[in-house]
Every structure is written in structure tokens, then in C-alpha cells.
Amino acid sequence: MTGLTTRLARWVASARFDDLPGDVVDRTERHLLDALAAAVVGHDRPWTRRVRAYAAAESPSGRSIAVPTGPELRPEWAALVNGTAMHGFEIDDYALPGLSHPSCAVVPAALALAQETGCDGRRLLTALAVGYEITVRFGRATTPSLTSDRGFHVTSALGVFGAAATAAALCGLGEENTHAAFGIAASLAGGTAEFTRTGGDVKRLHGGFAASAGVRAAALARAGLTGPTAAVEGERGFLAAFVENARPGQLTDGLGRDWASVDLGIKPLCVCAGLQAPLAALDELIEREDIGRQEIHEVRVGLDEPTLAHVGRLGPRPADLTEAQLSLHHAVATRLVLGGNDPAHYRAFEEGREPPEVAEVGRRVAGHLDPRSDEVFPERVLATVTLRLANGRELSARSEAPGSPRRPLGAGEVRAKFGRLVAPVLGEGATDRVAERVAALRTDSDADAVLAPMWKTVATPVRQTGEPGQ
């Protein structure tokens, strides 16, 4: 076996905790904590409830919890539910320049298998670090062509490889079986980005699809099934099928030495990653100039071309929550009228309680191509916001997406976000205990002492209060 697929498999199979740089371990812990917050926020979404009911009906009994409300399922099914929850409210992480959403694929795969098979905290962190690295490298190799030229969604199309790598590392598959897992994963990759044009719930499921497919690929490989030798780089392999302008060297150049997971970003707000910079620039302008909403007559937002195409076409009156969290017009108007872009603000939209002023303000928002933003994309996501006030005065500000690799959130900020999102659901005490258990992973060798109590801590308070919407 020779080529990219082989080199990827060899590296995954040989990864050990002691080989992980300290900053990689720190980053992995932060993103695990952030993923758990996303799962808690997304657990009661209508699509998550439906997927959970479907999984509970189809899965045999297992040890993997569909967080945070149960039931205990087989790993593939638990990964489907948890990945859907993590990706289901636009608050999960992402990467630049690869634009993938790694956590909603790799974290559900890792936790489901860790519960099923038993492992210590270091092995879990190693599997997660490997999954993040593989997902980000696939993003580097395929973005933006994967979406811009072919219309695939990065989360499902790329996440399956990260989830398969995570599963292979956690289960201790050797090089040959890991190679097979990549080959099988290439046949399970998919998911279109049509939701950016015509909406639909299925976008919410893409993290779950990737996570469960990665678990399946590793399980089939472990059972002796094989894939193409050159499943990634071959003449009819993944890159040829999914990408018009691929950069295959990004998959393995410096692998194990130059960690691509430095590209990971964390969203402060529950909207598309491409909307974080415009909202930050809007905040900076309002704070700097002490502007009231009633003074703003028009908002013009300059973005790069791919981001503008992704978020700029849905308009001020989204048909569903998917469109609302991807719409530039609606996101800006929500921030101006309701004061934020957190889950509570979007529940008003879901429940039909959104004031008509949101749509009115949204009609005064316009997106346009900004050459400077376009020049630096996808390495950076910049936005220029120009406000035209009622008195004719114009004010502008340019901002980089907070939480992005060049403007990262620190550990304290990630922990604060975790508390802000999780405490309203679990309570302060349970929220603190979950954070403590994540921090203990690198030192605790007893899986039952870390993993099971962590999930029970998450699950129990929600069970006691009842599951919303049931």
C-alpha cells in the first residue's frame, strides 16, 4: 500500500498520548467542553427529539448514552443522536481555512465508543486529537472547492473521515484496518449544501450522519471489510469525486509535526461561522459610537464571495430556523432588535413571538462583496460593516470573527460560554461538575471514574425536569 490513504492510516494507528504537544491537549479539552455545551443546547430541538426517537426504536440496547436524556444505545446510534444535537443549533466549532465543523463528528464518535468499550481519559483525548487533525486537514485539502464548485457540505462530507479516524484510534485498530476504515468512510461521505438556498432540517443531521458513519466505517473495517487502496487520492477516489481543485499535499505535509488543529475556532454566537465577524463589527461600531437602534437607517455588510453566497441569499424573512441562523439579514436584525444571537433569541423566532421589527430592520440590511475580505478568505473571515444613520452620517468598522484562529477565545472565555449555555439547562452545580470531569481526563486512568459520571451528571438533571416538547 502506498499513497495518501496509507500515510493517513499509518499515522492514526501510531498516535499516542505522549506524542501530543501540550497545546494540542489543551485545545482538545477546550473543544470537547464546547461540544458538550452544544449538545446540551441542541438536545431538545425538534430534529434531535425525532432522531433520538428513531434511534431508540432501531438500536439494540447498549452502553452509549444519547446525551443528555438517554436512552443507552449502541455506539453508531448514540453518535447519530449526539452529533445531531451538537450541530443542531449553530453553536458548534469550526475551522479555518478548511471551514469544517469537527467536533460534531469526532466527539460523538469518541464518546459513544469510549462508553461502549471502556477507555481511559488519555486514550479518549488522543482519539479526539487525531479526529480533529484529520478533519481539519481534509478541510485544508478541499475547501472552498468542495462546496463552491460541487455543493457538498463540509460537516458531513469531511466529518466522516475525522470520525472514522477517531473511532479507529480509540478502538486500537492497526494500520491495515485503519486503512480499510478510511476506504469505507470515503464511500459513506456525502451531504449537500442546498439548505443554504432552500432550508430544511436535514442540515441539522449532518454532524450525526458523519459521526455515525465514521463509527460504522471503523466497525466494518474491524470486522474484516476492506476499502480501495487509494480511496482518498485515487483516480475515482474521494478527492476526484468531491473536489474540483484539491490540494492533496495538505493531507499529509507535516503530519504529526505541524498540527493543523491550530486552525480550530469556537463560535461565541449560535449563528453560522460566516456571521460571527459581521456581528462583531456591528457591536464594535455601536459601542464605539454609542448608537441607538432607532438611529440606524441602513446596514451594509461587506464579506468575501463564498461567505456572501452562503449567508447573503436567504433574506430578512427566513422560512425556518435553519434559514434564520444562516441569514445575514435576520442575524443582524435579531442583534439590533432583540439584543443578541443566543438560543433564547432564536426561540422567539421558533415560537412565533418574534416582534415584526426584526423583519423591518432586516429589510434595511444589505450584503456586498468586499475585496479585502475576499483577498484573505478562507485563511481569515473578515467583515466590514457600514451604518448609515437617520441624519445621513455614515460609520464603518472592520472586524475579524471572534473565536477564529487569529482571534481565539481563551480557556476562560470558553468556560464562560459553557456556563452561559449549560447552566440554564443543568444548573450551576452540574455545570461545574461536567467542566471538572473534562479537566480530569488527562490525569485519570479509570474510564468509569471519568466518562460514566460525566454523562450521568449531564443526563440526570434533565431527566428530573422532563424533556421539553415531549
Automatic annotation (TrEMBL):
<dbReference type="InterPro" id="IPR045336">
    <property type="entry name" value="MmgE_PrpD_N"/>
</dbReference>
<protein>
    <submittedName>
        <fullName>2-methylcitrate dehydratase PrpD</fullName>
    </submittedName>
</protein>
<comment type="similarity">
    <text>Belongs to the PrpD family.</text>
</comment>
<dbReference type="Pfam" id="PF03972">
    <property type="entry name" value="MmgE_PrpD_N"/>
</dbReference>
<dbReference type="Pfam" id="PF19305">
    <property type="entry name" value="MmgE_PrpD_C"/>
</dbReference>
<feature type="domain" description="MmgE/PrpD C-terminal">
    <location>
        <begin position="271"/>
        <end position="437"/>
    </location>
</feature>
<dbReference type="InterPro" id="IPR005656">
    <property type="entry name" value="MmgE_PrpD"/>
</dbReference>
<feature type="domain" description="MmgE/PrpD N-terminal">
    <location>
        <begin position="7"/>
        <end position="247"/>
    </location>
</feature>
<dbReference type="InterPro" id="IPR045337">
    <property type="entry name" value="MmgE_PrpD_C"/>
</dbReference>
<dbReference type="InterPro" id="IPR042183">
    <property type="entry name" value="MmgE/PrpD_sf_1"/>
</dbReference>
<dbReference type="InterPro" id="IPR042188">
    <property type="entry name" value="MmgE/PrpD_sf_2"/>
</dbReference>
<dbReference type="InterPro" id="IPR036148">
    <property type="entry name" value="MmgE/PrpD_sf"/>
</dbReference>
<dbReference type="GO" id="GO:0016829">
    <property type="term" value="F:lyase activity"/>
</dbReference>
